[in-house]
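Give me structure tokens for this 696-residue protein.
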Amino acid sequence: MNKGKKKKKKRRTVSLRLNFLFFIVFLLFSGLIIKLGVVQIVYGDEYLREVKRTENDTISTPVPRGKMYDRYFNPIVDNKPLKAITYTKYPNTKSNEMLKAAEKLAKLIEQDTKKITERDKKDFWLLTHPKEAEALITDKDLELVKNHKLEEKDLYKLQLERIKETELDKFTDDELEVLAIFREFNSGYALTPSIVKNKDVTEQEFARVSERLDSLPGVGVTTDWERDYPYDETLRSVIGKVSSSDEGLPRDNIDYYLARGYSRNDRVGLSYIEKQYEDILHGKKAKMEAVLRQGEVVDTKPLSEGERGKDLVLTIDMDLQLAVEEIIEKELRITKAKGSTYLLDRAFVVLMDPNTGEVLTMAGKQYVRNSETGAMEIKDFALGNITTSYTMGSAVKGATVYTGFQLGAISPGTTFYDTKMRIGGTQKGSYANLGPVSDVTALKKSSNVYMFQTAIKIGGGHYVPGQALRINPNAFSVMRNHYAQFGLGVRTGIDLPNETPGARGPDTLPGLLLDLSIGQYDTYTPMQLAQYVSTIANGGKRLQPRIVKEIHEPSNEETIGPVFQQIQPKVLNTLNGQEVWMDRVQEGFRQVAQEAGGTAAKYFMGKSYRPAAKTGTAEAFYDGPRKNEFSGLVPTTNLTLVSYAPYNNPEIAMAVVVPWAYQPGGSDDINKRIGKQTLDTYFKLKEERASGKKSE
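Here you go.
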């Protein structure tokens, strides 16, 4: 009886508990149903709108850069079309999705694996071996994270460190090819097409990928480009470089470019003309609007087709440039073969229109050692015309005479007796005792003494044979400021970056002022020397040298597009002074080239183009690339020549610079030989074009 009561009581207790449990479950389900009802009825429309909500973003596709032509519209820099395979990563694209696409693409193309780094292999191993990667993290590591002694992100670093080299060595060639493709996929930015392959894409590869784009999400095919140089190395150092799609934007200027609408993997000009005219050459990207829903692209709409960059017409005459480069190279080889010098390794020629500042030729050649063969080769060094400077010697004496006129130290016709000058315990003079010389004769015969006497008067000094010389130290800055009127010792303003102003000697000893007056103290660039002689040729206007003549609209035709902008001549300053002062300097230059006794008459007298000129010989110390081979200063000689023609109606101005032409005891006229051949070539080419024998 008692047992039965107990069983009934137990059954009642269980029933109560079950009923209570069912009641709780009922309440929970009721709450869930009410919640779902609220979501559907109250917030249903809002959630539906969120699911259907789309976002619009813009996909930008790079366009080819503008081209470059010489003044006669011969292509100097062109774009060579390349078949290319691209990949566009979308906001919600996952690594495993990219991996699958990379695996499919690897079966269709051959991908170079040389760019793969050890870090790339480690990242790829962790992605493709998730279980093994997880095993690299210990319980102790997780405990440290739990106790905030280690951060979550540090776990990945630990995994990278713990991967064994033997694991990385197990990658097959096929797997490495997938990695190389995945690497390119992963290097891009969302909604920005990145180049997977654009070198040596075969017709078969291009066709296979094109046919399977539906099964390759994000992969695309397009026509890419690379810079093409019809004249090979000629002027390459001045043209400059463009970054590759791998390099993208330069790190030191990345914010500048991003603020102007560039993408991180865009190719930009890195140096010289390519960099200076980046805004012109870059062009307008083709744009497409991407319609996104929950991070996935559901539609695209074209916005603009884009436009390749505008074209540059340079002031350069490529026929003349090539001819002058050949002259320089020939004369360098001849002079080196003589054995009179072991330091000569370069020479420069600048040809400029003295009436406009247009640079027709900017030639430079340099001997360099081939890093692979060890043999010496002659390479383009046109850039050295604005990036290297030298003592130029007597070529600058025209500026000294004109400065003497301006400061009242001399006047037209002033005569000095040219003989050795004894200053303290030293002697300074010309290459010979020239006797009485006027301002014109001093230029014709290149009198040092005339320049010394002029400089002494500028400095407020008085020459007494045998006594120390005293001058006002401010004379250095006074003379330099006047030289700057010609372009000597200051940047010329040429439309290229990284131009050097040259170097000023640091001391102000009286004897050094005399050296300054004959071009043997401060250093100048070949371009400065060209600007200087152009200023004399045109009667006193310092014109800004220019490498770009015109900017043209892009054209899809073989002919160049219409003019967008024509660059006008720019006068930087005009020399103050009497007309007769410039007449005297110009007459001196004419006599140098055209009268017996002139220092360049041997090469130019009787020429039909009637040139004016000034030669230069500077005693200097070698400061070139081999200077570390020597324990002390090595004396050497720089040779220069400035000229313009015709003397009475100048149309061409020239500067020739040959540093370290020979050592003490040697002699050479390489500067004059180069100058003569250069002007002969210019006027011959002009005659051929006028007669129709040479097409433009």
